[in-house]
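PT: before anyone asks, these are the final sequences, not the draft ones from last week. 908 residues across everything. Please model them as a single complex and drop the result in this thread when it's through.
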Amino acid sequence: MTERNRELFALIPASLLVTAGFTAVFIQRNDLLSDLSLTYGLIFLCLCLAAHVVLRFTLPHADPYLFPLVAVLASFGLVMLYRLDEDFAREQAQWFVVGLIFFAATIVALRRDHRVLERYRYSIALAGILLLLLPRLGSPVNGAYLSFDLGVIAFQPAELAKIAIVIFLASYLRDTRQVLVVGARRFAGITFPPLKHLGPLLAVWGSAMVLLFVIQDLGSSVMFFGAFLALVYVATNRISFVLIGLGLFALGARVLYAIRPTIENRVDAWLHPFDDALYEQEIGGSYQIAQSVFSQADGGLFGQGFGQATIQLGDSAPILPAAHTDAIYSVITNELGLLGACAVLLVYLLIVQRGFKTAMLATDSFSKLLATGLTAVLALQVFVIVGGVTKLIPLTGVTLPFVSYGGSSIVANFILLALLLLVSDRARREALAR
Amino acid sequence: MNAPILRLFGLFLVLFAALAAMTSYNSVLNADAYRENPKNARSQIEEQRVRRGLIRARDGTVLARSSLQSSGLYERRYTPAGGLFAHAIGYDFLRVGRAGLERERNDALTGKRSELQSVFDELRGKQRVGDNVVTNLDPKAQKIAIDALNGRKGSVVAIEPATGKVRVMVSLPSYDPNALDTRAGADAPLFNRATQSGYAPGSTFKVVTAAAALDSGEFTPDSTVSGRSPVTISAVPLKNFSNQQFGDITLTTALTNSVNTVWAQVAEKLGNERMARYMKRFGFFSDPPLDYPDSQMRPSGVYDLDKQEWIPPSSSRVDIGRVGIGQERLQVTPLQMATVAATVANDGVRMKPRLTDRIVDRDGRTVQRIEPEQAARVMSASNARKLTQMMSNVVREGTGVGAALQGIEVAGKTGTAELNIAKRINQPWFVGFAPLERPKVAVAVTLENIQGPQSQGGAVAAPIAKQVLQELAR
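LR: through. Structure below.
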């Protein structure tokens, strides 16, 4: 069976999942079954088929599992959002269409050779940083500068910036990885990179710190810096470089922790979520994290079932804040239980596996690093938000890719997927030719 | 570059495993603790979908009922007599949480069944309904006690000695459970003074000392001790009230006239160890075994305010002579002093106090009867009867005549803790029981900060106790 036929078959269960999910929500809501759920399933299948046809014509050899896995996540997200609020789901579905258009556009534009991106690496890096600084023009939400209000939509540029920064780093490290390794010196048992090439790396560290100070968001910074360290490690195979980087980041974060109330609050809320003062605190308190673990506790092994989670009572303030964005993983755990949550984690893990597999198959350094970076940044984003709502690490608001409500997130992650598929197609084609 | 990529994938495997582990901890392993966290309203919201059981008084009067709201949730209403028992019954509201018996008997009131049973009920389409709780509380006596306190801050507790059934539990100022305001206001109306206030017991504590004196075999009611004033107790002179002088008098006379110097000497003679043993038997130094939330009760005993800690009376830091007359740093709850009186009345056996009589399902079948339960034997029956005689003398001809009833013999002891001698601000007390044969009720009455020449226990607290005893001892 060819790759594309496998992909086509894998899309069927994803569409069935949408149909089944909407059916469950309908039953819960009206006690009667409407054929609307079948319609939704059909529309979803048609959208997926359209994307599939694009892939069939442009990237026939690309990894067959990535797109269906993403479709499963997207269907999870749509059903969950529909259950929370029909408007969210409708908007999300529209964003889904927009995301697929960007997906197709990226593929069509770069289908000859994605490595043309290297030529524009500095422009891309600059664009990425500008994107990150944009929200500074607006006003902070919960103490962090994350979104930029475009009038109609709130745009979260960090989502796009993460891709830009990965492209730049992949390209930059392809050039310098040899000199970083060859010129390294050992000092006090630790291998240090050569000083003259340390500069750019320090510059990346510095910009991560600046970002931390400027956008005041630990979550995005951990994502960016983590992807950076992952790329440095893969490019140089030197664990010591990673340790130095981690040390520097910890130092910066420690300083920030001491002077920025936002971060301090988040860490305190994480350490003492049930402290009365922190719990009652209106902004930056621990109410959200406490309610997030409560709703997971409500789920148990099998969950309460679709539509059964207690999220809001009447018109009062929601019991679980940001259920459609930050805390959607908690809603999934609440309604589908530990098993449902683990299924979602497993889907992400499979995507990560396919991403790294793509990186290993790729023959040129830039493609390898690009696939690694994109996969790492996606995996880190999942870790930051799921770790946050499960109280594994301090909670900072980033979206759960392909599941959370949010236009910029959907669009950016579809571009990320398109790039991965571009790398994959080329790698597998070359592997076949050999 | 493939080896580091593989290792990187290994790292993400570990990170994702940590996510799965944390989710397991939250949703399964530690789920019960999270569900019971007081900040978690989910189980409470679920429970408001259940029609909560009624709470009834001893005579069947409905004290609390639930009605369905437009939101699909049930809401609690406290019917007129329910307001009488604000502290004992407590409240249950989504917005402010729950307290009192509503909290203690929540499982019964919400019809909570075992996990398996509830699965079967759900499959059979049986709706979860709450069971009714029938209490031991007596609305008429409660009303009498509240009226007798007449707006003054204080507390009255009445217990049936043989069973530990709590008939009256008053704490003033009180609150209207239907218009609850949990913000900390003046006078702390939500605070249950009957179980949460640590008051100086004054001379009512001499009942404990007398029990220790008789039951240890060191003294009899006729043992004589010098009642001169002052005597030196723990190197500090101690005077009688008004520095009154008594000669060599019997313990009966010393109790009747509440002679401080005699009882301080008795306590010193008994020593720290023995006083501690009898206090523990009476229930001091541990949470009362009442069916009431632990967070709304406190133990009684010797408390160091500076160090914020309980001191065992066996400690050498305690002036046991002054403990023996209810001074030192003694802090007692009205519930504890009612228990002391009930224990003497019940031939020296302390029963566990009980607010609940039985749990009844919607069809009237008794699901659970709360049987009387013995907490401890404090002293022998014969010594308890001797002490009863001594206490009856107090009411017949001593400081407690204010509690004497027509036709029913009453045993008791007054107390007057001097809070501010210069301003004559006192904490008056009365503990007692009636009738002498087969006592039906034991009572403790106390009032806060009573000022003036007529502010002794005999003048203020004994007449209140009299009215409650009259109602319940008939």
